[in-house]
Model the fold of this input.
Amino acid sequence: MLYREAGDFKTTYVADNQTFPLKLDRIGFWVTMAVAWLVIPFVINDYWASSLLVPFLIYAIAAIGLNILTGYCGQVSLGTGGFMAVGAYACYKLMTSFPDVNIMIHIVLAGGITAMVGAAFGLPSLRIKGFYLAVATLAAQFFLVWLFNKVSWFYNYSASGQISAPERLVAGVAVTGPSTPAWAQYLICLFFVTVCAIIARNLTRGTLGRSWMAIRDMDIAAEIIGVNPLKAKLTAFAVSSFFVGIAGALFFAVYLGAVEVGEAFGIQKSFLVLFMIIIGGLGSIFGSFAGAAFLVLLPVALKWIGVDVMGWPTDLVAHFQLVIVGALIMFFLIKEPHGLAQLWRLAKEKLRLWPFPH
Amino acid sequence: MKMKKLAAMALAGTIAATPAMAELVIPDLSYRTGPYAAGGTPFSDGYQDYFNLLNARDGGIGGEPIRIVECETGYNTEKGVECYESTKGEGALIYQPLSTGITYQIIPKATVDEIPIHTMGYGRTSAANGEVFNWVFNYPANYWDAASVMVNYLLEENGGDLSGKKIALVYHNSAYGKEPIRTLEELSAMHGFELSQLAVDHPGQEQKSQWLQIRRERPDYVLMWGWGVMNQVAVQEAANIGFPMENFIGNWWAGAEHDVTPAGAGADGYKSLNMNRIDASLPVFAEIQSLVHEAGNAAGDGSNVGSVLYTRGMYAAMLAAEAIAKAQEIHGVSDVTAAMVRDGMAALEITEARMAELGMSQIGPEFSVSCENHGGSGLGIVQQWNAADGQWVALTDYIAPDDSVIDPLIAADSAAFAAENNIEPGCL
Done:
């Protein structure tokens, strides 16, 4: 009744191929953007920024990156944490070596460096597949963390082995360092999320995305119809790592401000991002956001309910959190293996038919 | 029991909801879950129990009741930041994160928010320079003191000469474990011993290769910077390869009961540093038992009273309470702010008379803090585990570190931090 294409006529191919073909979807998208850009920056405070929104946005970028590789191109990767570390350390080295260059450029360059590293680690994917590739990327994860711990050049020979982000300004406002206002922290992340999501969406709709999906669905068939597996797989690794690198750079510079590679970018991070795309939905940009929101917001919400509302002991709540998040992951995987994105798709189908389902 | 607890909580809720009453808010960033819970739990129990004792016995500090806000970090920096952000808005007066990683994270934030941090014997060592780190205190001692105290103890054991000796450092591969390396390298050049470094990755359950290397290299002494489950595994591994336990010395975070008991008799003779004395017969423990535990307000399960880390947590709470009392005295108001507490910490003076008055005679060294020196005296004792009696025995009196080595290192590191962050060193 409310949500349908009836009466929404397209007269050109361009209009027919747009990202949101339904008018209501377009309105929803622009309303979301307006709230995110024009309302939230004025009401945000430190707690909302650093506990919820900034990590959500950063993980969303990482999830989009991994989704391109795993969801669209079918190459399982357990190296996300390591690639985020590459982004973070690249950003740190660039920030400290070229302090006069704008931090925005550094973050993009850090993504570029990660793309190169990712493509290099993607080379084995030409020969090995499936679980074996997952193990090869696991090696990348451990090697990269070891490298950043071992070679002190990466952390500028600091005694503690930590890297910490010096203050950098964008348009006269600090976006890294301790005196960053919450809204600036939020806006810089939102900017990168918006740009990354638009790029990812359009890449996956175009030739490149179609060649990735062809490789994912059946690599031999794809090769026979003329898709170059070398190009498709390596571009998937490069593009995916580019996004993951940007997420790593933001995670270090904007969100935490100081990181220790073993703790911040360990294997748990790789699993966390992988869970995000599995729960959110493989092969879906919306799914990346949904999964990131689910795994960032749920623990905070559970903690708030347990400790602040119910007044339970903190250790009990921390244990319950693990149990509940684990149970919910299993529930979703059994009830909807295609993730939250599929739930959303089904809901939309139902809405289009409503109130006449037959 | 359940009903009683619920009723107590409901009561606490109504008290907390009464708006007119001013209160002193102390966040406790604790960790009772994860691989470091064995150390985090007794420390947090001691920290909370002491504040609860003050509430029960004296009605708080200077007549102001204390409200503890506990937040579980799991020793994880991301959760630590979330805890910091969620508790600072409640009027937090002082932070004690009990994690070097979280400390590094919140030093810049707390400096901007003007809330003091007390990192007792952990955290960033160069925070001892109060002119650069106005809001961070690490009295009564820091990691570089610990490294130097260890070497001074070994010097004493070897008649003042360590040349040609081989010393291995087994450390947690994180900011925490890497802290002493710089000092030990300096001391190794000075005293002519050979230093080898063996990193153990988080969480530290896997140490076979490190101890194989120790078995091969046969160092004269092994020093350890460990925490959580890593300590138990290291002590067990050392016992397995038959390393002489009296030559194995942990720092003060690697010397609690739960670190050595899993290895049983094999751990006998293991040594560690301590920055406070342990004495389960101190009058303050009896008071905690009668006024806090018997009233049903014990933090945790109440089983840790008098243990090494419980004592240290209580000691940390005592130092915080004394600083708040000092702040009340300086500013002449009882409802102090975080900035006033900082002044109290910078003017803190702990004397034996005061410690005896508080029922914890000789628990720590006498020391005083100034605006320039946030590091305290840096003294440490060496204790040894007696597996048969199941207790730690103090072997030495307080040993002084070699300030001629540490002071220039602190000056250099804090100057680098000041330059990086555009800080003009000076007192507030």
